[in-house]
Specification:
Layout (H helix, E strand, L loop, with lengths): L5 H12 L12 E5 L2 E7 L2 E5 L8 H18 L3 E6 L7 H7 L3 E2 L3 E7 L1 H4 L10 E5 L2 H15 L5 H12 L4 E8 L2 E10 L5 E9 L8 H15 L4 E6 L4 H6 L3 E11 L2
Parallel strand pairs: 3-4, 10-11
Antiparallel strand pairs: 1-2, 2-3, 4-12, 5-12, 6-11, 6-12, 7-8, 8-9, 9-10
Length: about 260
């Protein structure tokens, strides 16, 4: 499927990528169902609530479902993210989440596009920067250290999460680092969702002094080539306001938005 109609691409996204459960499930991670949704426990950053749709649930029944999720993670003493999409129903779901103590974080755009045009291009990082596929714990720790420095909060758990994914199925994810000498200047990973035509791109944060030099674009192109080699025909990214223009120039189309609503006990 390479139709760039946003409605058709969103339908493919909903059908193939949602509810977005880990596949395979890494060691130490558990998935529980509760009505139309799933709770993912044991992630490096806390828990996740996800679903394809809520099956028409509304009113008091929906409020009770939301309250149960907060109660589970309150008992665990862990934060949980409710991944809300812009086209989720009912329309008053954001209000109901806020009333239950879930706090919205930054909205991102879900963009989707064909693999082939990007997979046919060569990634061209700037002079002095090389792209390298990594699996070692030392390299994953270097990536987590860079992310921690960039975002100003402890993201050391990222290395644990990536390591567990690689151990569960090294063919399901590829981690790519951009290096200048011994310095990690950016990193991104690509997941190959089983049973789908999609590859999904994650990461891409870049050190400020290396931005606007084509590193993010090179990382996207490199991972698109990997997706093409595995027979994937569509790419999907949860794009920030900074990365969305780059991705649109590369042929990806906005199909909806996603906002993390986070409950912190």
């Amino acid at each position: 499927m390479t139709d760039l109609d946003a409605t058709a691409l969103r339908a493919a996204y909903d059908a193939q990528l949602r509810p977005g459960l880990p596949d395979p499930v890494p060691d130490g991670v558990a998935v529980e169902s509760d009505g139309p949704l799933f709770r993912v426990l044991g992630l490096d950053h806390g828990g996740l609530v996800t679903y394809r749709d809520l099956g028409g649930l509304g009113g008091a029944d929906l409020d009770a479902l939301i309250a149960r999720q907060a109660a589970v993670f309150r008992e665990r003493g862990e934060p949980v993210e409710w991944k809300l999409h812009g086209h989720d129903e009912p329309a008053d779901l954001p209000r109901r989440l806020r009333a239950a103590g879930f706090v919205p974080e930054d909205e991102e755009s879900v963009v989707v596009g064909p693999v082939a045009p990007l997979a046919s291009a060569l990634p061209v990082p700037p002079d002095g920067v090389r792209l390298r596929e990594v699996t070692s714990r030392a390299d994953l720790d270097r990536i987590a250290a860079m992310e921690t420095q960039l975002w100003g909060r402890d993201l050391s758990g990222l290395a644990d999460g990536l390591a567990r994914e690689i151990a569960a199925d090294p063919q399901a994810i590829t981690v790519v680092v951009a290096e200048a000498g011994e310095t990690v200047v950016s990193a991104g990973w690509v997941r190959y969702r089983s049973g789908s035509t999609f590859a999904t791109l994650w990461g891409g944060s870049t050190r400020p002094e290396w931005r606007r030099q084509g590193i993010y674009r090179a990382l996207v192109t490199h991972r698109a080539r990997l997706a093409g080699q595995r027979g994937r025909t569509l790419l999907q990214v949860d794009a920030s306001d900074e990365s969305r223009p780059v991705l649109e120039r590369l042929g990806l189309v906005p199909v909806t938005t996603t906002t993390p609503y986070v409950y912190t006990p």
